[in-house]
Amino acid sequence: MSVAPSPEAFVRKVEIPPGAPWDQWRAAKLEAAHGAPLSAGETAISIRRLRPWAPNTTGLFGVAYVRSTGELAPEVSATIDGVAVVFRFTSPAAQRVTLRRQAVTAAFLLFAVIALGLGTQKALQARTANEALLAREEVNARRWASLGQKLQREADERRLLQKAGAEGRSFADVAADLVWLGQSKAPSVALERVTWAAGEMQVLAQGRGAPLLTPERSLTPIQRVAGLQMWRIGKSAPPVLKAGTARPSVVEDRPNQLAPSARGAP
Amino acid sequence: MGGGRQNLITALSACGSVLIAVAGLLVASRADQQGARVAALKASAKEAVALRAIPSLPPPRSTLCRTSREVAIVEVAAALRTAGAASGVRVERLEFARLERSLPAAMSGAQVYLTASGGEVAFTRFLRATSEAHLPVFLDSVDIMRTGAGGLQAQFSGRVLCQQART
User: Fold this and answer.
1) Inter-chain contact A155–B137, Cβ cutoff 8 Å?
2) Which of A30, A142, A159, A202 places its Cα 20 to 30 Å from the Cα of A70?
3) Which pLDDT does position A254 carry in this prediction?
């Protein structure tokens, strides 16, 4: 545990009690300044840790002092405990250059960190907005898919009904034809019998003249039965349907109000 | 001093690089997920465009039932009797028989005969009730005649149809 004297600098060894590495560094600096052989303005100090930091271990530092009044040697070698240690000194001008360089580097780093932070925040905002948009569009797409399935089911069912010859033969169709007949009947005529078959009707009418007031459907006299006239009334014209009807871009979610089962499946 | 600081800076840089890489991977992963969702949405949009080509037809006034023929017969019988009782129409005859006409392979059905009597108002109510019930009954013929004293008698003949293969 010895320090070989150096011709260029005054070198000594400092032991710092165990502690955090930065605390040991600060203590070593204080101890080096306190133990300086000359006043602060006349001395340049360089400190080197002599062994790596370890917890609960005394920190070992080497301190070299040189006169700062003349030209500073950039490096001074010394032997401490048989190990050659190089101490580096920098002139005040070089220190200023280094400080300026460090300040510029720090400013650039700060700028990069701020830019990264802002960019990340912007990306997160965009992602959140995209998430909301996607979620909304997915709901809409699900509704479109549901509507499509419903329309497809209806189209399939309509084809089946056509194949079975069952279109336009519901109780509602009969009721609609009878309501129309009631509204179109001539007041001077009494209907004794109505026969409905797939939208076409035959009526047995008592009275003078045609039994209908409106010319919407064809009306044909057939025969006379026991003094009454039998008429044939043609089917109503089928509704005009256009393909590709515009639908809303946003599909509303409407609960199905019709229960399935033996009621016609909706 | 210089070596320790250098090591610290190197370690911090390594940690920072790892963090940035992990964050980048996370962002990329989320972007992949969003990309997949956008692709699915595009597919849906194509379907939606195709959907616009489907003719907009009025819904059928009665639709096929989705149950078995036997269940449908029981439920139709109950619905007709309920509608008759509620409207004041007397159901004189309600019979189901084997279907005499052939049906497409995906369908099953039964013949239904109904004879009922009542006043004009009662028949109006009866027809409204059966219309609103959307029964899977498809009528082949209806014969309505006066019976005297303002009464009517109606004979309905039709089919109960189900969208289910014959068993």
Assistant:
1) no
2) A30
3) 53
